[in-house]
Amino acid sequence: MDRENVWKTYKPEDLDELERISRSYKECLDEGKTERECVKVAVRMLEEKGFRRLDQIIENKERLQAGDGVYAVCMEKSVAAFRIGTEPLERGMNILGAHIDSPRIDVKQNPLYENEELAYLDTHYYGGIKKYQWVTIPLAIHGVVAGTDGTVTQIHIGEKDEDPVFAVTDLLVHLASQQMEKKASAVIEGEKLDLLIGSRPLEDDENLEKEEKDRVKTYVLRLLEQTYGISEEDFVSAELEIVPAGKARDCGIDRSMIMAYGQDDRVCAFTSLFALLDVQQVKKTACCILVDKEEIGSVGATGMHSKFFENVVAELTALLVGESELKVRRALQNSRMLSSDVSAAFDPMFAEAFEKRSSAFFAKGLVFNKFTGSRGKSGSNDANAEYLALIRKVMDAHQVAYQFAELGKVDAGGGGTIAYIMANYGMEVIDSGVAVLCMHAPWEITSKADVFEAYKGYKAFILDM
User: Fold this and answer.
1) Which helix (H) or strand (E) holds 461?
2) Rounded Cα gap, residues 174 and 197, in angstroms
3) pLDDT digits (tens, 9 = 90+) for 387-407
């Protein structure tokens, strides 16, 4: 089924709204380059719209009623927000779920070392990346350093014009004949993704012995101490993420696209959040959950496999109707969900990896994937036909452009989402999201039209499912 390029259908007022959404989205991308930063952005926007923190409501022994906005945060890395509906919670929720972690490079816990008067941070990459894409580009450091005195220092270096940036080096082409013969997966090894952070040795002073070694490292440590109050031991309790430096930008002479880091899966996360924020009254309770750790299996306390979401629903049930494990289970089972994660956009430069009839295309709207997984649908949630029909009905009623697709050719590979995890509760779940070019690269590309249609589709879902 061929879908019309949605740019052809827009009226001037649609284009104005599209650009408004795109501007807001790019601002969120710039401010939220880590999961912690994304949660901070989300909380600020929620509170600006009158949402209140769940633990404060519990502490104050308040009750909830239809129209109330409430949110809960897990370890500053995941957030679940709800707009309470007029129907009982046990009849289910309309849930938008996305992840806010993205592939990157992490700093190890004993990272700082000097080699031939160059200072480096030892690293370990996070998620599925092509390692060779991360060399010789400007990189920034974002994260936190927790001290034993209870202080938490925010680190944010490389984004301002006056900031320094960092780099992972590569071998010059003149000496790379052997390197160029390697497989792409081995051209740059994981242990060679260390971050170059300094080259200037500490000058002699009365407190430094003349035979002191590692003077470049010593100078880096002195700068860290002077600027941030951080010692070498503090790296042990730090979470520092290395990400591409730079802002989200319009892409194309026609400014029809967005190029930015972390659009997998923040393009779905922020459009889902925008949709929830723009809805005041709903029949079924509307939920937007933004979680961590999807890129490494949705594990840990802040991943979708944790009991965080279930525990929050239990607390909501208690505030609305009193404690009831049965009603919690009913609320979860009777819910419907869009597992909002990106899809691979058809790339004519690599057409051999796609099956064209089952591919997602730029400017054809929100993408639905009946199943993901790999090869023989391994690890996928395969949505019911009846649920797909209901999705179609709602999207059509709200004039949302949408398409159905798979992730490349059957035997080419595949990928997973959080869909199957939530489906364990017995709820209806389908994968949906925005088509992305260069997925998992340091810089990814989306169509502004698809970002806009995703926002419209997510809003239609929480209003009318």
Assistant:
1) helix 448-464
2) 25
3) 999 999 999 999 999 999 987
